[in-house]
Amino acid sequence: MDKLVIDSRGHLEGTVEVSGSKNAALPILMGCLLAETPVTLSNVPHLKDVTTTIQLLASMGVQVMFDERLNIEIDASNVTLKEAEYELVKTMRASILVLGPLLARFGEAKVSLPGGCAIGSRPVNIHIDGMRQMGADIVVEHGYIVAKAGRLQGADITMHPVTVTGTENLLMAAVLAQGTTTLRNAAREPEVVDLAHFLNAMGAKISGIGTDTMVVEGVESLRGVNYTVIPDRIEAGTYLAAAALTQSKITVTKANPEHLTAVLDKFVEAGALIETTPDTITLDMRGRSLKPVNIVTDPYPLFPTDMQAQFLVMNAVAEGESTIKETIFENRFMHVSELIRMGADIRVEGNTAFIRGVKQLKGAQVMATDLRASASLILAGLIADGETVVNRVYHIDRGYELIEEKFHKLGAHIYRLNNE
Ligand code: EPU
């Protein structure tokens, strides 16, 4: 298993280009199952989760091709298997996103039920209940969700709590349903919005995009299009956190600052200067010291759970006390025990972390448990005294494209050890 070794080397500087959004690319790739003619996607990041999705689509008979500019052409005109097997689903929960498209287009789907994961139990009851409301007959047997339907029927569906992939799955089910579907308490994340724009480009009729009520008029069929995936707001935010921690000035390019409003506000509260253009964000922390910030994670447009671990590291070395409350996932503080091993002063009670800033973290061997936890340990390594070794970096490869190269370009000293 690979490890990442990080030496703290002072300041970072320069620019880093943001890749396409993982959490937009995955549902869009699954959404290609809805199209009767080929789709071409640009700005899809090269990540383990994308490779897993392509494997999943290929296992169903979908043709996937890359052109010389690494655009991906996906031809789902001949889907032979309407199934997502356990071996793939267990490595990537987002595989559940084939359920809606398969059921909508073919009237059948068999998808392994995802298990719990490191950050919480993460049920999919809302996905299943919503499709049942659209007329699907769904049983869960032998660990699989087995769904059958004639043409799905439009329905009025209220989702509780707000769910990102739940909204996406039901949206993809609704676009080919007969009649009108109303999705209430819908997620408003930019990734959901990107999927909705993609579906409309293919011929779907979705209104209310970006609001908590989306109305979908079902259509008979969808056709292929060329589509460019939005930039990854969490990747952008992670590099900005690295600059804040190392008292540096960096610019992230090919970003969308509008998707990061709540996060940028917190960077400013933490003492950073922020400048934006329509597609760049510059964070300047030179000569400034970090202030602690209280955070509550919530659905978009509020502060994202996927930036919680990175801000927790910032608070761990800011002068003073702070709290971080995680309201989305019940077990998303796995990084805390590792940060404590690096000298942080953090106590977790229920869903809240109480943090007292320390002057200096100390490098140590640490273990990554999920994607964003891994990112936070790399950030901690950038400022810790001595060497930090992050084990189990496969988590990072699921969500951060070319992470060592991008950090090298900014002047950080990070290298990968391939062993075992
Ligand atoms: N929930 C239910 N029932 C459901 C679905 C969700 O109770 O049927 C609950 C969950 O247990 C959780 C809450 O609803 O407590 C919100 O979960 P949500 O469904 O929104 O999460 P998700 O769709 O599984 C996506 C991202 C996550 C991100 C969350 C929250 C993808 C592929 N994943 O997960 O991304 O943290 O939304 O914004 O889009 C990551 O990239 O590191 C990551 C974990």
Distance between the termini: 6 Å
Number of helices: 14
Cα Rg: 21 Å
Bound molecules: uridine-diphosphate-2(N-acetylglucosaminyl) butyric acid
Share in β-strands: 15-25%
Judged by helices, strands and strand pairing, the structural class is alpha/beta
Number of strands: 24
| Mean model confidence by pLDDT | 96
- Unreliable parts: none
- Major β-sheet annotation: 4 strands, mixed
Share of helical residues = 25-40%
Strand line-up of the largest beta sheet:
22-23-1-24
**What spatial form do the alpha-carbon principal axes imply?**
globular
Provide a quick synopsis of the model.
The chain is an alpha/beta fold and 420 residues long.
How would you characterize this protein structure?
- This protein has a four-stranded mixed sheet with strand order 22-23-1-24. A four-stranded mixed sheet has the order 2-15-17-16. The chain has a four-stranded mixed sheet with strand order 4-5-3-14, covered by helices on one side.
- The protein contains 14 helices and 24 strands.
- The mean pLDDT is 96.
- Helix content is 31%, strand content 25%.
- It is globular and about 65 Å long.
- Uridine-diphosphate-2(N-acetylglucosaminyl) butyric acid (EPU) is lined by residues 23, 26, 94, 120, 122-127, 161, 163-166, 191, 304-306, 328-329, 371-372, 399.
